[in-house]
Amino acid sequence: MARAPIVRNRIVAYLDEISPQGATYVELAREAYDLDDPTATQTSAVRRVVAKLVAEGIAERVGRVGNPEGTHTRAGSKGYANPLPMEIRSAKD
Fold it and tell me: Are 69 and 82 in contact (CB under 8 A)?
């Protein structure tokens, strides 16, 4: 997992850069991986990094913001809304 420190450093730098504003996991994944559409695996990796940053007191979860981005549909059932995105910001503020 050689990219993990790079991803972590990019997330910390980006949160400091946009502070006091926050960002969602997807926005952080876009920035960390320099992609317009990060994969679910990349977004999941960002979630794990953010969890460590929160535990270290470097970042904080602000809460759910915005509108759900689409719906999920399971076979044989109705669709349901995605949860609202979680906003993350630097804990330095």
Answer: yes
